[in-house]
């Protein structure tokens, strides 16, 4: 069984509620999203044609890829349109020190 390897990214004070930010974690492009104070980490590549998702539009809980307008629910990474695709999800936690840590596996 793989062990969790947390990598420090940014501080929660720099990622406000309703905001998203691209970070690189151990060579992997990651998208951090603050959804109502809950931080999520996804692969920063659209499952359609790998466009950078941080260039898209985040409206509440819906992320729209700017390339061909696919939409995703950022609370869990599921696809809205189309609904048979989803974002790649990574483990993510906010430490007591406010640092967001991500495990890209
Ligand atoms: S690359 Fe994102 S919708 Fe096509």
From TrEMBL:
SUPFAM superfamilies: ISP domain (SSF50022)
UniProt keyword annotations, A-Z: 2Fe-2S, Iron, Iron-sulfur, Metal-binding, Monooxygenase, Oxidoreductase
Domain Rieske: 7-101
Entry similarity comment: Belongs to the bacterial ring-hydroxylating dioxygenase ferredoxin component family.
Keyword Repressor attributed: no
UniProt protein name: Toluene monooxygenase system ferredoxin subunit
Coiled-coil blocks: none
GO MF annotation: an example: monooxygenase activity
Cofactor(s) needed for function: [2Fe-2S] cluster
Cleaved signal peptide residues: none
Gene3D superfamilies reported for this sequence: Rieske [2Fe-2S] iron-sulphur domain
């Amino acid at each position: 069984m793989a062990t969790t390897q947390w990598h420090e990214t940014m501080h929660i004070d720099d990622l406000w509620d309703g905001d998203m930010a691209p970070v690189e974690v151990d060579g992997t492009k990651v998208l951090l999203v603050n959804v109502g104070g809950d931080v999520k980490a996804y692969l920063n590549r659209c499952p359609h044609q790998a466009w950078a998702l941080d260039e898209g539009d985040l409206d509440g809980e819906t992320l729209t890829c700017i390339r061909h307008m696919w939409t995703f629910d950022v609370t869990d990474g599921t696809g809205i349109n189309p609904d048979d695709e989803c974002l790649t999800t990574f483990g993510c936690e906010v430490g007591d020190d406010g640092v967001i840590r991500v495990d890209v596996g």
